[in-house]
Amino acid sequence: MPYVDLYSKDDYASIYYVTSSTFNNVGGFDPEKPTIMILHPMFLDTTWLDNQFADPRLYRNYNLIAFDMRTVGRSTCQPSGKHDSWVDAADLALCHQKLHLAPCHIFALEALAVNCALRFAILFPEMCASLALCNVPSPLEQRWTYNTLEELVHSWCYSEDLESLEHAATELLHFLLGPERDLDLQDQLVTHWEKVIPPRRRPWVIETLSVLINRIPLEPELYAQVKQPTLILHGERNEICPRKHSEALAAKLTGVENGAVIYTVRGAATFLSIIPGSASIANQTFTKFLQRVPAAKSEIVLPQMSIPDRMKEALERQSALVGKKDITSLDPLCPLSFSCLTDEAAQKQAELIAQYSRGRFSAFDPLGPDGRPPRKVSQGKSEHWFQSGKDGLSVAATNFLPAERSGKQEPERPPRNNDREAQLVKPSSPAAALDKYIIKGPMAKVVRETSAAAAPLGRMLM
């Protein structure tokens, strides 16, 4: 099986990976082609990289490999409060060395992947040939995104029935993808989450979120350590990670020769790698960028340093850069030794994971006896009071705005007629209806007299 086991005295993780080779292994790589390492988006895994692995511009010209983050997908690990993006970078470095990979072009998709890629390039520059960063996040998580993500993830993890679980998922997708999302993509995402991260997996879910919201920003001198050619891809409609963060990062990467390149993907927002149109534009831009980078082959070369010595050197380099002298005495083969969280932050994160671990085995299971969700989220009832429309209003998505503000045109009225009689609603003759039910005879005269008297009454009402 394609796993890399990372074990030490204080930690254990089994990292799953996929490749573009025939037998899904590194031994099948073409030594004449460069290697691309793809880092998947947050809350997803390597199964959502079809737009990259199925693109002939990538798989025909490059060897592709992707790893599942230790807390998602098929990877497994012990939950830990020390987990941060430095730990993810150490995971990648250990996997890189154990698989004897050549220097890789890093293709980082979204926030967690970008933070991991930058730290990987700082500590292990010889393993990184170039960087391509999609949707650069802010150095510190913004308050409104922090509160929203925390609330939605909590609602997902503690859902007690299918309706509340689907509601939490659709609200999260509304926040990440916006109201104009594709319904088929929505069904696929919710089904994936129900299978891979159901409520019983909530300790790892909250650990993944904690890596994002508890991150410590890099100091300016650390950005200067990045020397690799860098491409920054930004979604035009991304409100969570606006363009100003990409421009700020490009300005900080003073060590990159000729500066970092920023490219705006028109019409794209968050998760641009899973939207076929946006992903195709990003792939095209990435391949054109790689054509300007010096070619690097993928020949298997024995490392000049042993893995313990190389990790020890990286730990000492990190200690000098971030000013943590105490980490040099830690085990270099344990990725948690690279954590830069303060003791207080690590303790609070560990307590949060322990809180989410309580009762997780009795949590709601959205899967049926066949291991599948009972329905697609689009097949659920939408008449409940908390189901909202695209504009955020409830139930029937009724538009309460005036026509000039809502953008809708009122239907044109029929032209006026000078004939007053044409403007009057003609009263219907009840005689025909009554004749249908009244027995012919003396009463017919009464009926006719009644209908004759009723005609002026209709005009009086108008």
Unreliable residue runs: 410-439, 449-462
Estimate percent helicity: 40-55%
What's the overall average pLDDT, rounded?
Answer: 86
Terminal-residue CA separation: 83 Å
- How many β-strand stretches? 9
| Helix segment tally | 17
Largest sheet: 9 strands, mixed
Strand fraction equals 5-15%
Structural class: alpha/beta
Question: Looking at the structure, what is the overall shape?
Answer: globular
Please state the CA-atom Rg, rounded to the nearest Å. Answer: 31 Å
Order of helices and strands: EEEHHEEHEHEHHHHHEHEHHHHHHH
Structure description:
The chain is of the alpha/beta class. Strands 1, 2, 3, 4, 5, 6, 7, 8 and 9 form a 9-stranded mixed beta sheet that branches. The protein has 17 helices and 9 strands. α5 (143-157) packs antiparallel against α6 (162-177) and α5 (143-157) runs antiparallel to α8 (202-213).
Describe the structure in brief.
With 462 residues, this protein is an alpha/beta fold.
Overview features:
single chain, 462 residues, alpha/beta, 9-stranded mixed β-sheet, 17 helices, globular
Secondary structure elements and pairings:
Layout: E1 3-7, E2 12-19, E3 35-39, H1 50-53, H2 56-59, E4 63-67, E5 76-77, H3 85-98, E6 104-109, H4 111-123, E7 128-134, H5 143-157, H6 162-177, H7 183-196, H8 202-213, H9 220-223, E8 230-235, H10 243-252, E9 261-265, H11 276-290, H12 307-322, H13 343-357, H14 403-406, H15 420-423, H16 430-437, H17 443-461
Parallel strand pairs: 3-4, 3-6, 6-7, 7-8, 8-9
Antiparallel strand pairs: 1-2, 2-4, 2-5
Helix pairs in contact: 3-4, 5-6, 5-8, 8-13, 16-17
